[in-house]
Amino acid sequence: MSDEEVTVKAEEVEDLSKQKPTRRIIRPSELPPRTVTLKRPDIIGRLVESKAKKQERYPVYSNWASMMGSPCIRELFHHRVNWKFREMPDPEKQFLFEGGAWIEDKAYRDLQDAGFRIEAQGARFEIKDRKENITGKIDMRLIWERLTIPVEVKGLQMWDAEKLNSVHDFWESSKPWIKKYPCQLLLYMFAHGSEWGFFYVVNKLTMFPNVIWVNLYDHLDYVTERLETAILVNKCIKNPKLLDKQPNKGFNTDPDYCKNCDYFAVCGPPEAYEGAAIENDPEILKLLDTRGANEKAHRAFEQADRILKPKIREREFRCGDWIVTGKKGSRPKMVAHETERNVTWTARIKRIE
Ligand code: SF4
Q: Ligand 1 atom 7: the closest Cα is on which residue?
């Protein structure tokens, strides 16, 4: 009997979902018939959709310690005043960010398993003695020799994690978000009078951590300058004209930093500004608009293509209105200083006119 003959529609198959799993080994002849017409759920699509739904912007009532490492006063101002215009990460990136919480939990458990006393996961703090209005949270605290040592956990890509061994390495990073990390930890240390703190940096490839110790007194000038900046941000919120009186009118001088800024659109750095030259070419504008209008469809195309390609590799057939063909090829690959060739398959998918 061929597969075809035993094939039945999913609706016709007995509902096995309530059946208890058996511990007995089942013989192939006892298996229910194949259900090739099963309507498979779009699991990835639904996950992405659910992440997109959860993305929300919240009003910002204080200077966030995690933002205070920004070198741009306008960014700090927009974060408070124009939070509604903040660019949100793609749903795909949301998965990456949420992975950070998992790494933090793992660090907490790993440190406890190693016999360390860890407390106050996610402890909040505020600094407002001189109207700084700074709030934030620290990942956890380690109790050691009667000292309370703040710990900030960061999960980073291998190539970023490997470059970090001191606070200065954070500041010299090419990634704007990594540059901001020391400020958050130092502000917490300042708020709680903790001389020592450390970063627990997890390499996301190996999951192996690195510990980077920080002494508050080595960076007291930096902390003082950040506190003054927070006070200035509060003054600018009351009187936005103050921004124009800042050096370079408060605009950042690093084009790369601006390109990654969540407030680029609302800020609109000046025309002459290298990082944000204004382009008036109508063709480019039309292409950008077309690209934007098709962004969602493009993602759906890529997702289907990714699943489809392995299924049609080295196959030629007709399916519905589609003709699928392909071409075999090869490309070199280096294996232990020897060159081997990888067999490739370039699929061609055409709709029948
Ligand atoms: S776009 Fe540049 S100048 Fe404007 S807020 Fe962002 S970093 Fe600052």
A: 258
